[in-house]
Amino acid sequence: MLNRRRLLSGAAAMAATAALLPRGASAAATNYDLIVKGGRVIDPAGRLDAVRDIAVANGRIAAIGANLPPGSAQVVDARGKLVVPGLIDIHTHTARFKEGPELVLKDGVTGWIDAGSQGADHIEDTIAVAKSAPQQARVLINIGRAGILPEGDTMDLNRADVGLARNAIAAHRDMIAGVKARLSRDVAGPNDYEVLRRTQQVASSFNLPVMIHMGQTITPLGKLIDLLKPGDVVTHMYAPPPNSIVDDNGRIIPEVTAARRRGVWFDVGNGQTGHMRWDTIDQIVKANFWPDTFSTDWNTNAHMTGVIDFPNCMSKFLMLGMPLDQVIARATVNAAKIFPVFRGRGTLAAGAPADIAMLDLREGDFEYLDNFNGKRVGHQRLFPAGTVIGGKFTAA
User: Fold this and answer.
1) Is residue 348 part of a domain?
2) Residues 67 and 204 grouped into a single domain
3) Among candidates 133, 102, 84, which has minimal Cα distance to 314?
4) Which tens digit of pLDDT belongs to each residue from 320-379?
5) Domain holding 23: CATH number?
């Protein structure tokens, strides 16, 4: 049953749809390219949660309504499925692999950020993959000129080269969306504070956000957090001590609270090693400090780890008690606010780009892993069921 708020949002969507139609035309007379039919449409940006059809024409959402006439359009049967805005993953390493974009597309991901796979020395490699992707994609340049290194990106402080990073951004300003600083003790060691200071020097020259990989740093987290400006992103927010976002008593440290107030974003960054531990997660959940966005820290072996896919990472928060619409919001409309490339996405509003994810919400007993072989059992899990991008449907 629809409440008043949903009725009003539905009316707004219908009005927007009518504005898209030629004068004197009707929805019945419109030629759609594709209709996603009969799914439970959840669009947190439009406060819509109802069984609806979604019509696509010319790569954009043309109409949302009940029993839209298909005409000659391709029909995708979404009965029994969730139909949500295309998922936006702001922390991946998709661009390390030529096959990466197609693999995450099958997971429902219609927009992604490669978060610092490469630095200035080889940034063209990741940019080439991002440019060839079917989705909207951008890269963050690693402040370490050689990118991700097994021995640590900036253990040698000389690798945090401000001039080289600035030159790389100037040459590729259309594709570089920010600067990444990995700050863990095995990545930056005692250089972490200076590395972040240099990262801000680079980013501020171009009015770009910084994303920091936090957790297990040598410098206290509060001191590092104080260097962050509005629009910056803290990823791996559930990393356990040393230097977690909670103190020894399970309270959020004051610098973290202050950072959120001034507009710093906090992101999950599920990952595989060292970033999520259930006891730390429990403390942060108890403190009611929820993430702004979800992300996977995706690699090609993600399907063989506790990451699995983006919908699986989202499902962990259903287990932790987050309502379904809020889970969807953190993977769509919230993520769309951070990087300009995603502006106007993360919604199913009429006129928006037709980035659509179909998800299967199953009931049962599902095992979820942290990064320390810790296991929890939840009773719901989201599975990818198909993606629409550019008016074309891709099965999961």
Assistant:
1) no
2) no
3) 84
4) 999 999 999 999 999 999 999 999 999 999 999 999 999 999 999 999 999 999 999 999
5) 2.30.40.10
Amino acid occupying residue 27:
A
DSSP 8-state class, residue 144: B
* pLDDT exceeds 90 at position 22: no
Calpha distance 207→279 (Å, rounded): 37
Torsion over CA of 280, 256, 269 and 39, rounded to 10 degrees?
A: 100
Considering only CA atoms, which of 60, 79, 76 is closest in space to residue 21? 60
CA 255 to CA 233: how far, in whole Å?
Answer: 14
Please give the pLDDT value at position 8. Answer: 40
Q: Please tell me whether residues 189 and 144 are part of one structural domain.
A: yes
Torsion on CA atoms 348, 350, 353, 355, rounded to nearest 10: 30
Q: Residue 17 phi/psi, 5° resolution?
A: -65, -45
Token couple for 76: 């995708």
Strands 136-142 and 176-182 come out as: parallel
Single-letter residue type at 191: N
Mean pLDDT of 218-234: 98
- Residue 184, SS3? coil
Tokens representing residue 127 in the block: 């940019």
CB 338 within 8 A of CB 88: no
Residue 287's pLDDT is what? Answer: 96
Secondary structure (3-state) at 270: coil
Number of independent structural domains in the chain: 2
Strands (E) across 17-95 are located at 34-43, 48-57, 60-65, 74-77, 82-85, 87-92
Q: How confident is the model at residue 100 (pLDDT cuts 50, 70, 90)?
A: very high
Last residue of a domain, one of 80, 111, 136: 80
Is the Cβ–Cβ distance between 94 and 190 less than 8 Å?
no
Amino acid at 264: V
State phi, psi for 93 to the nearest 5 degrees: -125, 40
CATH code: domain of residue 338: 3.20.20.140
The two structure tokens encoding residue 340: 């300009």
